[in-house]
Amino acid sequence: MFDSFLFIGLPYVAIVFLLVGSIIRYKLRAFSYSSLSTQFLENRWLAWASLPWHFGITLILLGHVLAFACPGIWSALVSIPTFLTMVEALGILSSLLCLISLMVLLIRRFVDAKLQAVTSHLDVLVLLILFFQVFSGLMVALHHRWGAAWAPGALGPYIHSIFTFKPDASFVKEMPPFVKIHIASAWVLILLFPLTRLVHALALPFHYFFRSPQKVVWNNTRSQIRFEQRIESENERRLFLKAAFGTTASAALLSLGALDKFLGYFLKQDLTNAEEAHLLSKKLQRLKQSAEERELELERMSKDSIFVANLSDLSSAKGKYFIDYEMRPALAFRDGQGLPIVLSAKCTHLGCTVGQDVDNQGRILCPCHISYFDIKTGQPNTGAPAKAPLPHLGWVLKDSQGHELLAQDPDGRREGAINSSQLENSLLFIVKRFS
Amino acid sequence: MKIIISLFFLTVVFSTTVFAHPEFQRYSKSVSGRSVNCAMCHTHSDGPEGIKPDQIGSLSQEGLNALGLARQAYKPGWGGKSPILNEFGNLILNDLGKEKILMLKQKPELLAEALSKTSDLDDDGITDAQEYKDGTHPLNSMDGNPWKLFKNNLIKNRFHILMIILATGTGLFGLYNTILWLSIKTGKE
Amino acid sequence: MKDRKSKFLKLVTFLSERMPIQKLSFESMVTKKEVPVHRMSWAYYMGGLTLLFFLIQLGTGVFLLFYYQPTVSDAHASVEYITYFVNSGFLIRNLHTWSSSCMILCLLAHMITTFAMKAFARPREITWLSGTMLLILTFAFGFTGYLLPWHQIAVNATKVVLQSIEEAGHYLPGILSTLPSYIKEIIQGEASVGQATLSRFYALHVVILPLLFLATLGSHVLSVQLHGMSQGVDTPSKKAERFFPFFILKDFWLWGVAFLIVFILALCLPFESFYAYPLFEAYDALGSTPEGIKPEWYFYFLYYPLEILPFWMVMLGMTLSGIGLFLTPWIFKNTSRKALSIIALMITAYLIIITLFGQNIYDMFKGTTP
Hints:
heterotrimer; A: alpha+beta; Fumarate Reductase Cytochrome B subunit; Rieske Iron-sulfur Protein; five-stranded antiparallel β-sheet; three-stranded antiparallel β-sheet; 55% helix; B: mainly alpha
């Protein structure tokens, strides 16, 4: 029952009274829309207290309004750890600033003689209510933490229900005492708003940023010069404010969106086991490939002859790749008579590796700039980008015991003899003496 | 030992239907204008035949067993993984079955229609069937028709793009006013 | 005696006019500096844009340095790791690639417009010379950086370019014919492109070229600041705006827009998607070469002529252009800006046509179907 009064009845009374009261007050006594500033009487303490109070409360109210007006976006933002840290840090700082400032504002009224004379009960009441409100908020933050995360979901619907005229206090009924106190006193504050000096909050000087500088013309030179200097410094101030706003907003956005990614670049990356295994196996493969290449190099440095293939495995349609003594790619074919054709596969144009498939004209193709090379002569076709022929390599046919049967040097001269049965079982080698 | 096993299996399996399918490669290349290699469907870019890692000649005993089973997957939905096919290749085998694939060899242009219209294995916003026609790799999210990729990524990253525009805009606004402020200050001296 | 003294005096006057160090004052460099306003004023921003992209390259390059491994067995895997596994790695890498292309584009625009505006005229000859050095260094950056990912197109394209250098030996007499091979071996470090090449290209790209670039850039920017912006058009413009704050504000706005464009491109459009994927597989020394090997687009203006025209013609053209580029301030000393604009337009037309349509022209000449 009491809950219904506090969280349904009171809000509507407060909102209606706020609207009606503020409008009536404006119509009847417009000039009473004043902050009732005591700056003329006491300037120093006011400056040190009023400015931090206003900064602090603006930030806090902004956070509250954003969270309740756009709970979806707020929740999405708050799920970013950097943003949440920023919000909580700013929140605590602001509330401490507000509390200290309010205390100073209150104390100065009792300490300064001039101020004592003009302080009324209403002034003190306003300060006390505000203090109570911020204090209760701080208690909520300290005792029921992560408010930035749970409040939009838990209390957002309540606020929404009030403003859509379907009030539902069930969300608030289950809340702990600190929260209920904070909410209830907020409604009280709203109720008392039109009766106090707080109406000055409705007259915000936004146009200050955009209005043209005001030019006053004095009819004495000294005042005119002093005035122009003041305008210049006001211009400076405006530019400085705009500059500070721009750079701070940009820095905030960047730290919000980019900073954790920037730092994340240097963190240990999260890989699943499967991904790590896959990467490692790829690296292992490449290492094995490098090891193989080194072995090939070593082989070519130390051995006098290197095995290419069994002659029976070679064909006249598809060449077999191997690496020659100069570590260049080379191809081995078998001609019509069953003898091997061995030539370099490094295209004489710009060095691409020539393809291994022989076309119906007995030529292999270099795919880079389309040169056809006849495998028997090594000559490129007329008009091909390659001008020089693919050099033939010297080869040796050995039997299974390692005796040399037939050898052909790079110029085509043959040594030795071989019969057809030996041919079928022979092994093709390249030899150092022909390189 | 490895060579002997691989040679044995090569001769055994060679007597069944041939596995490398250059018809699909040729079709993809002709319709897209991009050169593609066997790595689109197979685990090695030169195809399954050979002794390099990820080719038939270097498979272990269980790899060869798995390959044998895959060879018999004539109908769709066999549910296994062939060791010489990558994820896309295995998807085709599972969705269509070997019988259909051999039929499609004669009409490679129908492969794209036969594949699922929604499957996008690399999640780059372009379906696998479309990537086959575009000649881009269906398992590489960085590879795709540039304009389609651009459009899809633009939509995927719209929040970040908006934020960076805002950040740059406010930063420039701040810088602009800082410089004007500085110019007034230096002007006074 | 008198003759030698006057020659020395001439040298001193020459240098002091080209490097007016007395202008290194706050007043002349900041408060009183003005920029002419005329129809070519837009070109004054090109140099700054090039600098912006270079700074992006420096930044992203340092980031990439944290993960890249310059060995033939690990280079490709490390680049793949950056692209697919490091948080925001693909963005940094893509930004590096896109920004390199943008830098070269802006650099060419800057060079051609300064040529057309006759900004190399006295006393700005040293600015032009340092600029030409920067051009060469930038192309060297592009060439050395391209090899580092160690994929098929990287290694093969590098091989092709180095082979072309060796080809020049056929046209030189006697022992000079071995000189190109010697140069090629110095660049390569071993018999064919391999670990030695990768190591030295890495050293060049990451240390040597940046240091040289920064030193040359320092001299270039200093002389621009000392001399101020050139007049740009034949009849000096009556209008001029203050460098600080107006010109520099517009400059920074342009930087902001340019950065946003390249960032969004890097975030959403992988550079590699313009090429066939087999070109980016790990380089296999023992395997076949995939088709479509070509150098980067900013080398097309050299590559396609090499493919189409006789070698000697291209070499001759290159040598003449190279010498012409260095001696521009003296060759075109008395040329009007109107004539210079025509030359600049012709050069731009050639560069655009050969870069965009080079492949088509090549196919036309060779009768090959694409």
